[in-house]
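notes to self, project folder thing:

trying the whole complex as one job this time. last attempt i did each chain seperately and stitching them together was a nightmare. two parts in total, labels are on each line so i dont mix them up again. if this works i'll redo the older ones the same way
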Amino acid sequence: MTNETEDPVASAARLVSGGDRVADSAPGDQGGDQGGALFTATTLDRKNARTERGYHSLFLLMSIVLILPVVAILGLLIVRGGPAFSWEFFTEAPRAQFTEGGIFPALVGTLWLVVVALLASVPLGVAAAIYLSEYAKDNALTRLINLAIINLAGVPSIVHALFGLGAFVLFFDFGTSILAASLTLAIMTLPVVIVSTRETLQAVPQSFRMACWSLGATRWQTIRKVVLPNSVSGILTGVILEVSRTVGETAPVMFTGAVLFTPFLPQGVLDETMAMSLHLYMIATVIPDVPPEVPYGVALSLILMVLVLNSASIGFRVYLRGKKKW
Amino acid sequence: MTSSQPNRIDDRLDAAWIWDRIARAVIFLGGISAIVFVVAIFAFVAKEGLGFILQKLDLGFFFSSPEWRPAQEPEPEFGGLALIAGTASITGLAMLIAVPFSLGVAIYIGEFATGKVRETLKILVELLAAIPSVVWGFIGLTILNPIIIDLFDVPVGLTVLNAGIILGLMAAPIMTTIAEDALKAVPDSYREAAEAMGATRWQVIRQVVLPSASKGLVAAILLGVGRGFGETMAVLMASGHAINIPTSPFDSARALTATIAAELGDTARGSDHYKALFSLGILLFLVTFVINLLADVLVRKGASDRS
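result (full assembly):
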């Protein structure tokens, strides 16, 4: 695999330095050399076509090399993790120091974390997107908000974890709980909802709003009766995407609410919980004597959840694009 | 009868007007929430860590010594050089892989590919970007580790090389998406003008599209660096997590982020060790903040250059 990834890099560097000269000499030569033969290929034309084909193939190759290892990895996960899948694997709690049983409590815990995180982040994210799309003027405050969104998405997940610990676990005194972990996740994934919802809202044609305003509707009436109904499915696409992000996050939950093992399923938002992502980390690194197919099985379940959610979101988006009336 | 009619309309308008005001206020609060959260993140991390930096941490020692012994009694040592070197070498190696690949793939998707191929590639890249970091870490730990041991005949496969490759594969799809956006921001009229002059597609890309998109492409690379810098779980699991200034890609290393993730669970709240980890958090926050700010300025400048 390493050979695969390094070869194109080297050849890219060679081609770029060679390609420079060809491209640079082209505009000057063209005028004089061609003369009357307007449609016959000159040496220069052939050279240009060769260069272009070269780059075309190089970039195609790079795309394939980027994607192939991941397909291979997915295949390997299926081969090694598939045998772990059974009814018991998904419906039972781990037993005997994680050497037997399944991942049921981790699945339930991840579901709790995702649902509570969505309850917090979707209303807030949609409100922020409405503000940016429908109210915000092009001023310093709007630029500041956009910068904050970029930063919220760019702050390392472990810093979000420190924040969650400092703010929700200690300052607001939620303890290590689903609530603290979910709020941390909600803030971390807020940019996903804001950005996708803003795009959906902005895609609603301005004429829809104008028609509504001209009937005397207020701004809010327009948003509620015209803009939002036309964006519901687009917002949903973004929410699915956010779910997929939330499912796999590990660092933000490991100090705020997710724990290695709980004997009972969580009963409320102030309980600690197990989670799929932390479970994978723990059985892959810390816990000894776990049967080898089990961590592969957990990794495979996680990756399948994320891929299914993302595919659903993408499929939904493509379907909506086809259905759009404007 | 006739005089009460206009009054009723007035009342209804008032109710609508009041709701409009309320909605505006609520939505405005939502709008500024992102700012509030970024400030809150810094405030809460600084609350635990800033006092330690100002009073106890010897900054000269932190930036010059590789001795990270936060739990040592009676004199803990807080040297950050090995952690900084670990983060820098892993991120650097990752960028060596991710930069050419993401730019190449972005150019292919944005300028060469058409129709179904283009759509499929875009979807695949998006799916790649969605794989959780803990799964990437697991891949480094269980799949790439034996491959590196066999291929290079080294005793340990959890190294800078391993973490760099994993991080490169993680960052490439995200950088591809941002770079492709930068290419898309170049107006088609630029391409058409160049094509009308007889330029081949590669000449158009090389001499018109890339120069015009250059600031956006640099921003994409910067955001990739920021992403690599802040990645936690994958680096924790694939790098070997050894305190050590790596001298070759086959050395194990330890990253700033991974240090916090690995040690925070074992520290007593309020202890020097605990505060030291928060001060690493301040460093991470500030560096990613500057990187994001720089990327944003570049994108903005690229757009204003064109208009």
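what i see at first glance: Chain A touches chain B through 104 residues (CB under 8 Å).
need to look closer tmrw
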